[in-house]
Amino acid sequence: MALSATALLVLSACANFSGISSSAKLIEPKAVGLAPQASQASADLPPLAAPLDAQWWLAYQDSQLNTLITQALDSHPSLRVAQARLARAQAVSQHAESNGAPQVNGSLDMTHQRFTATGMYPPPLAGSVNDTGTLQANASWELDFFGKNRSALDTALGQARAAQADAQAARMLLASNVARTYFALQRVNAQLAVAERTLAQRTQSKALVQDRVNAGLDTQLELQQSDSALPEARFQIEVLKEQQALQLNMLAALTSQQNVPLAPTLTAQAAIEPIALSQTIPLDLLGRRADIAAARWRVEAASSDVANAKTLFYPNVNLVGFAGLSSIGFDKLLKNESQQWGVGPAIRLPIFEAGRLRANLKGKAADLDAAIESYNALVIDAVRDVADQLASAKAIQRQRVEQAAAQASAEAAYAIATQRYKAGLGTYLNVLSAETAVLAQRRQAVDLNARVLDTQIQLIRALGGGYSAEADSLHAAR
């Protein structure tokens, strides 16, 4: 009865944290339109047969791309920074875990001192100069009655898991940037080939117009018009060469190399086969993206931090003990008579702390609100990102159908013009004029093919790029 009364008295003396709590709520999947994969079936895109592989870029079967991404993942400083942050977070979790275990330390103190003559020591010790020595082992064990150490460990583990997910998100972002830059370089090279053919075609056209002017069949106006097209064609080539150099510089930066060793001829753009991806926003999007997983772990860590802040309002109970030797005079330190020991509980109770604990709890609750709202914002942005990429992918497919029809029509007109020229029914200028439309369609085809690959990589990134939240285990975080 007395023990119960004492316990009630102790708890009633604790500082009060009532009225302080988090107000933010985690967003519900249905609120952002997440649905099971099979519920939004569409015939516009092939379904996803299996989850994305973590090395999704291998499906493109391009050895140069594989080499570049491997080099980037092995050497880029941003990944090393992410790994260093992960190591730091894991060290913090190990430190937090050790707080719940018994602590033992040893000490040796040897002092030559004068004892005060007006203090607690009586004569002949008072006013004398003597040597004192203490050789002692001290032990303590904090009894975690209110979960302070457990919540602190949960906070540290949540941060470690978030850091691990951040490292995976950095890998995904780097790999996708390398792939996008590589395919952008392919696009520039393909456009450069079309631009060079355009220049050659306009050069031929000018030569033919010059011949017609010399023969009196055309005027200087037609010659000036054909001549004005040459600088524009050369300008487009220079623009594309600048883009080519910039893409190479980007690849060098992403792979941490001064000079990117590329084969003399990149894989032809048309030879790259797109990967079949889902056209739906899957319900497990929250677990597929490493950045969302990291944000969720930060919510868990912040929640544990709030719980830890509440435990500070309760008593702190420790079992402490010591055993060792203590003497006045070094020559007596190791004698049996110098033995000393002690054991007992130590209780620390917050009674009046001028609002310090409540202010700390308010700050932790605000941190939790911020973590939840950051998570919610990231989920909303992720859903929008996936929806945008799916919408673009479907639109590009429809655009490719129309562009293919237009190119086929231009190719047919070019073939007819060529046949008429060979039969003597038309001039070569008619052939070159028909080829202009063909080259314009080829430029559009190159851009659309590049957008197919770029949009697909963006969709792979938006869907997590093969990340699995199951990799973030408790033991891995430790």
Automatic annotation (TrEMBL):
SUPFAM superfamilies: Outer membrane efflux proteins (OEP)
Any one annotated GO CC term: plasma membrane
UniProt entry tagged with the keyword Membrane: yes
Signal peptide region: 1-15
Membrane topology term: Lipid-anchor
Gene Ontology MF annotations: efflux transmembrane transporter activity
Major subcellular location class: membrane
Localization per Swiss-Prot or TrEMBL: Cell membrane; Membrane
InterPro entries: MdtP/NodT-like, OMP_efflux
Pfam families xrefs: OEP
NCBIfam families per record: outer_NodT
Annotated PANTHER family: MULTIDRUG RESISTANCE OUTER MEMBRANE PROTEIN MDTP-RELATED (PTHR30203:SF20), OUTER MEMBRANE CATION EFFLUX PROTEIN (PTHR30203)
Family: Belongs to the outer membrane factor (OMF) (TC 1.B.17) family.
Protein name as annotated: Efflux transporter outer membrane subunit
Organism listed in the record: Rhodoferax aquaticus
